[in-house]
């Protein structure tokens, strides 16, 4: 009588081959997920930066001369950052920025540099496990940008006019 089943060695060989294929595919999928998260963070930064011209236009039309107003900070000519909490309270953002990798929320700022010729408004997103600073590539080194933010950019301590 002839047995037409597989031997233990043949089954083990198939399992090992499948394991190798899954290891390669799993690594590729995880890498692609990180790239997707980084791209999403870049889009969020651009969205925050795109708020800048509208905020400037609205704040300049309101015309507040308070010492802590947006226009006062802007007219001083020094870079400053507006936190996402301030943007939320003024109605420019609907809520906290969600981490694209799914781990909670991120800190976000709109950096305003009135003296800049090329990027007067720049978005900045700081997520616990994902760094997005508008740089190209799959990995980000945000050291220079953090130093710029920490050393050269003051906090906007005033209130934006309500955009609601």
In short, what is this structure?
The chain has 164 residues and is α+β, with helices and mostly antiparallel strands. The chain contains 4 helices and 6 strands. Strands 1, 2, 3, 4, 5 and 6 form a 6-stranded mixed β-sheet that branches.
In percent, how much strand structure appears in the residues?
Answer: 5-15%
Q: How many angstroms does the end-to-end distance come to?
A: 84 Å
Helix content: 40-55%
Tally of separate helices = 4
Q: Segments where pLDDT lies below 50 for 5+ residues?
A: 132-138
SSE series: HHEHEEEEHE
Number of strands: 6
Describe this protein's structure:
The chain is an alpha+beta fold and 164 residues long. The protein is 48% helix and 15% strand. It has helices at 8-62, 70-76, 84-89, 143-152; strands at residues 80-83, 97-98, 105-112, 121-126, 131-132, 154-155. Strands 1, 2, 3, 4, 5 and 6 form a six-stranded mixed beta sheet that branches. The longest helix has 55 residues, at 8-62. It starts with 7 loop residues before the first helix and ends in a 9-residue tail after the last strand.
Core attributes:
rod-shaped; alpha+beta; 6 strands; six-stranded mixed sheet; 4 helices; 164 residues; 48% helix; 15% strand
Question: Which SSEs are present, and which pair or pack?
Answer:
Blueprint: H1 8-62, H2 70-76, E1 80-83, H3 84-89, E2 97-98, E3 105-112, E4 121-126, E5 131-132, H4 143-152, E6 154-155
Parallel strand pairs: 1-6
Antiparallel strand pairs: 1-3, 2-3, 3-4, 4-5
């Amino acid at each position: 009588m002839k047995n037409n089943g597989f031997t233990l060695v043949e089954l083990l060989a198939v399992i090992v081959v499948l394991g190798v294929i899954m290891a390669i595919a799993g690594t590729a999928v995880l890498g692609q997920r990180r790239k997707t998260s980084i791209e999403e963070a870049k889009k969020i930064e651009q969205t925050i930066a795109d708020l800048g011209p509208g905020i400037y236009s609205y704040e300049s039309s309101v015309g507040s001369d308070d010492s802590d107003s947006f226009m006062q900070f802007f007219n001083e000519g020094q870079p400053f950052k507006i936190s996402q909490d301030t943007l939320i309270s003024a109605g420019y953002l609907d809520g906290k920025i969600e981490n694209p990798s799914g781990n909670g929320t991120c800190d976000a700022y709109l950096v305003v540099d009135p003296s800049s010729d090329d990027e007067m408004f720049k978005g900045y997103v700081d997520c616990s496990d994902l760094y997005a600073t508008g740089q190209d590539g799959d990995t980000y080194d945000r050291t220079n940008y953090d130093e710029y933010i920490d050393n050269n950019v003051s906090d906007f301590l005033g209130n934006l006019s309500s955009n609601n």
